[in-house]
Amino acid sequence: MQIKPGVRLLAGHLDPAAQAVLLAEVLEAARSAPFRRHKTPGGKAMSVAMTALGPLGWVSDRAGYRYQPSHPDTGEAWPPMPQALLDLWRQATGLAVAPDSCLVNRYEAGARMGLHQDRDEADLSFPVVSVSLGDTAVFRLGGLSRRDPTASLRLASGDVLVLEGEGRLVHHGVDRILAGSSRLVPGGGRINLTLRRAGPVALDSPLPPPQDQRKA
Ligand code: SIN
Ligand code: FE2
């Protein structure tokens, strides 16, 4: 369903069995890359705990926001992305180029994420694919300008949201999660996965996609 230009919701894209398998794979992969609450550039710990999978992971600290190839605490490379995520990206986008980053966000009761744009990626022509697992999120969707009107949208477990084309840079955030609305995540809460193409294509894809494959 098209929510607005460039914002596509694949409601219930993953059935409960697929959600359980994907969550188990992600949590297993993330065991060697512990969740941490990054500090904002202003020095405050974020309420959302994060880790990452794939060649690049998004991090934040006093120096700012960036993608880097290793976990800030362990110094180790981020764990690889499970194949199921690469398949999901291909299904949702139709792209031949693989994502090189999966940000894993863990929201416990009370966690939220302020309105922002995803713009730390090298090539903003690639979409962002967001997968919701566990408790329902009260998601806020705005426009290209921070001052544009916003709408509230619920993202339930198994939903996939794609930001692409003219929707790639819309402002978005998470007002709150509905604690206890799902029993998927052990101990409760919500896990959100965002698949992205963060680095320059040349780094790990010798064949950049033909232009006509860059859009779903
Ligand atoms: C994000 O914008 O990084 C996360 C969005 C979400 O948790 O749904
Ligand atoms: Fe975001």
What does this entry look like structurally?
- With 216 residues, the chain is mainly β.
- It is 12% helix and 31% strand.
- It has two helices and 13 strands, in the order ββαβββαββββββββ.
- Strands 1-2-11-8-13-6-3 form a seven-stranded antiparallel beta sheet, with helices on one face. A four-stranded antiparallel beta sheet has the order 7-12-9-10, with no helix packed on it. A two-stranded antiparallel sheet has the order 4-5.
- β4 and β5 form a beta hairpin.
- The longest helix has 14 residues.
- The protein is globular.
- The mean pLDDT is 93.
Give a concise summary.
This protein is mostly beta strands and 216 residues long.
Strand order of the largest sheet: 1-2-11-8-13-6-3
Number of helices: 2
Helix content: 10-25%
> What small ligands are held by the chains?
succinic acid, fe (ii) ion
What is the β-strand count? Answer: 13
Largest sheet: 7 strands, antiparallel
Shape: globular
User: Residue ranges: pLDDT <50 for 5 or more in a row?
Assistant: none
Strand content: 25-35%
Instruction: Indicate the mean pLDDT.
Output: 93
End-to-end span in angstroms? 14 Å
Structural class: mainly beta
The radius of gyration computed from the alpha-carbon positions, rounded to a whole number of angstroms, is 16 Å
Give the ordered list of helices and strands.
EEHEEEHEEEEEEEE
